[in-house]
Specification:
338 residues; alpha/beta; Quinone Oxidoreductase, Chain A, domain 1; Rossmann fold; 7-stranded mixed beta sheet; binds NADP nicotinamide-adenine-dinucleotide phosphate
């Protein structure tokens, strides 16, 4: 079978199609024929050797995909040939709070990922996906969507009338926008691009903030929220954006710390966190149980993920380069059957 792998060295230029033997299902396993995959910023970092420079190679990258069950282990109950499922991001994390074992069971590093025609996974490590979604749409759910869901629902308990601020128009942030609207919240979104903001408003955002024109966007978001500030911030920038997020959030509000696109280290004034009783909550994707709950909500509301562009497997480098350029709006996907 064909796979995409990094053979001996990191770097986009080293991503190549290779042949590997076809897997068979062990007693508790399934084999999936992967139909589609989607990219996360983490995949780009992993391929470049920046996520974990000690990651063993060869590695099949990418955590997020959807496939059809084509082989079922003898001890598996409740899943049948032909079912359409997505492997979960952290393969050992069923529910509750993760320990080190669960946190290190992630696809696309350290475990081989989904850029392969066939993938064997434990039957306990998949979820069914909403029927109304195409394969490409369903392939966007395991990491970006679940991270946004965990931030807003599992940790944040966002509800009707709350004010949510989400940063940028990438995969996580657009899912956060869609879920926050589904929960009845008001949403402000930032972007470096006026054009992307116009698209976010079409998707339901109540307020767009153009960061290059509004360097003190935190204060602006606080004013927009009314009262004492926003209830919840989806923080994907990290150290480089946290001071503005702290200026946006209300006393007692939550900042979901999800990414470090604007840097992981910077001198920061931590006083507002304690003096204003702010909760800074680290978020690591989510459990299988949370994925299933999210899928029920997506199905009930017929929510559709935002797809930026779809590439064939052979063009995986072009897909990763598009992500690196940052011009995308929503999810970049790979269709394996194309
Ligand atoms: N903790 C977790 O479990 C988890 C899960 C998923 C993702 N993440 C992390 O979350 C971040 C976003 O991931 P993603 O997959 O959504 O990425 P993505 O699709 O590549 O989206 C990134 C978007 O963020 C905006 N952005 C870029 N640089 C920025 C900066 N310096 N400051 C503020 N915004 C910036 C850009 O939006 P505009 O073009 O509109 O400006 C860009 O399109 C990454 O750091 C990723 O590693 C963490």
């Amino acid at each position: 079978m064909r796979v995409v792998q990094l053979d001996r060295a990191f770097g986009l230029e080293n991503l190549a199609i290779a042949e590997r033997p076809e897997p068979t299902a062990g007693p508790d396993e399934l084999v999936l024929r992967i139909e589609a995959a989607s990219l996360n910023y983490r995949d780009l970092l992993m391929v470049r050797g920046r996520y974990n420079p000690r990651q063993a190679l060869p590695l099949i990258p990418c955590s997020d995909g959807v496939g059809e069950v084509v082989d079922v282990g003898g001890a598996v109950a409740g899943i049948e040939m032909g079912d359409r499922v997505a492997p979960i991001f952290a393969q050992s994390w069923q529910h509750g709070t993760p320990g080190a074992k669960e946190l290190h069971s992630t696809l696309g590093g350290p475990l081989d990922g989904v850029l392969a025609e066939l993938v064997a996974v434990p039957a306990a490590s998949v979820v069914g996906v909403p029927e109304h979604l195409s394969d490409v749409e369903a392939a966007t759910l395991p990491c970006a969507a679940l991270t946004a869901w965990s931030a807003l629902v599992t940790h944040g308990r966002v509800g009707p009338g709350d004010a949510v601020l989400t940063l940028g128009t990438g995969g996580v942030s657009l899912f956060a926008l869609q879920f926050a609207k589904l929960l009845g919240a008001r949403v402000a979104i930032t972007s470096s691009s006026e054009e992307k903001l116009a698209r976010a408003i079409e998707l339901g955002a109540d307020r767009g903030i153009h960061v290059p024109s509004e360097p003190r966007w935190g204060r602006l978001a606080r004013g927009w929220a009314g009262g004492e500030g926003v209830d919840h911030v989806i923080e994907v920038g990290g150290a480089g954006t946290l001071s503005q997020s702290l200026s946006a959030v209300r006393p007692g509000g939550t900042i979901s710390l999800i990414g470090v696109l604007a840097g992981g280290k910077e001198e920061l004034n931590l006083l507002p966190i304690l003096m204003r009783n702010v909760r800074v909550q680290g978020v690591f994707v989510g459990s299988r149980a949370a994925f299933a709950a999210m899928n029920r909500a997506i199905a009930a509301h017929r929510l559709r993920p935002v797809i930026d562009r779809v590439f064939p497997l052979e063009a995986v480098r072009d897909a990763m380069e598009r992500m690196a350029l940052g011009r995308h709006f929503g999810k970049i996907a790979i269709e394996l059957s194309r």
